[in-house]
From TrEMBL:
SUPFAM superfamilies in the cross-refs: 2Fe-2S ferredoxin-like, CO dehydrogenase ISP C-domain like
Key words of the record: 2Fe-2S, Iron, Iron-sulfur, Metal-binding, Oxidoreductase
Any single Pfam family the record assigns to this protein: Fer2_2
Residue stretches making up the 2Fe-2S ferredoxin-type domain: 1-76
Name of the molecule in the record: (2Fe-2S)-binding protein
Region (Disordered): 155-178
Amino acid sequence: MTKLTVNNEAVEYLLDPATPLLWALRDASNLTGAKYGCGTGACGACTVDVDGRAVRSCQVTIAEVEGSFVTTIEGLSRDRADPVQLAMLDGNVVQCGFCIPGMVMAASALIKARRDPSEADIRRAITNLCRCGIYPRLVEAIQKAARVARGDETIDAGTRPGIDPAEAARAVPALSPR
């Protein structure tokens, strides 16, 4: 049994200790924000925060992170009010969205470590792949998120697009056959 704290809740996984963290999160905890992209750690779609560091969850086992504090995109901010999330929405960064949870988590860890990251810091820290090519807007959004996190700037959250998290798990009625 492997014990972790996931999104501020104690979790005990009854899985093989060699299970990749990604699969424990997705399959056992139903936290599907971290995506399986490549399985080699190259793409970053599976990035989560482990004890304040951006970690490719497909590349670490639950045994390797036992006793750690893990934050996934679901635990970052239930109402999407995290500075990185707000800045990405404000900067119209998101396109297809597949890579976004990993990028948000990597950017959040960066801002925790460096309150005023330079463009070079961002490019070094955010090595996640995005097939849509959002990188120029991403750098601007992360710099803005850092300013918001420091209190130097605000973002009018307004109405945020997407599904209300409380509604996301609601059952969808079955379609009747024709």
